[in-house]
Amino acid sequence: MEYEGTTQTAIDNLNQAVTVYQDLRHENVINFVEKINTEDGIALVFDWFDGKCLFAHWTFDKWNRYTHPNSPYYKYRRLSLEKRLKSINTIFQFLSFVEQQNYVAVDFYDGSILYDFNNDRTQICDIDFFRKKPTVNDIGENFWGPKRFKSPEEYTLGAPIDSITNVYTMAVLLFGLIGGEADRSFEKWEGSKELYELVCKATLPERELRFQSIKNFYKEWELSTKNCKNRTN
């Protein structure tokens, strides 16, 4: 209802998305079933996943995301840290797979995360704009993605969009799931100091100072999580 583009552009984008969902078929992603052609356009069909979106912007006029008990984000933040760390592993595993498939996540944010509160399962959705590598920012400052998640290169025309960019994106997501979101102070962080330092490194504006791949970021994350558990046990 709020779409401002042309019908043909929408059709082209959906056709492109079919390839993405086929190439990135994974247990942690909503399952693409089929494409349906009609006289007026096309539709993509997915298996139902009984999860709630962590950035359900269509309900913000009904309740506050941070304080209302019906808000999925509010409910998620009140899960135990252990459950959220398990959920985070699911996201890391998927982004590692994306990297292995020579893709880069584009327009990936908390609105791409679904959580099933009854079964404590996490699924990824809305990966339509993921791209094959190599790719660059071909739009400029209005490159795909919410401003709160975008790395410096996602504002710069011609800048590389790659695994290093995804490291930044994942780290911003982590600040939202177990930290203070926009407030990136340690006081708002619920994990260990080790994990906090990893996420701070991953969000450095200088690309060369971040982790150079999701694989390396996830490896350090797992190691620090394990060390923390060993110390508490």
TrEMBL record:
Alphabetical UniProt keywords: Kinase, Transferase
Domain Protein kinase stretches: 1-233
GO MF annotation list: kinase activity
Signal peptide start-end: none
Database matches in InterPro entries: Kinase-like_dom_sf (IPR011009), Prot_kinase_dom (IPR000719)
Protein name per Swiss-Prot or TrEMBL: Protein kinase
Lineage: Bacteria, Bacillati, Bacillota, Negativicutes, Selenomonadales
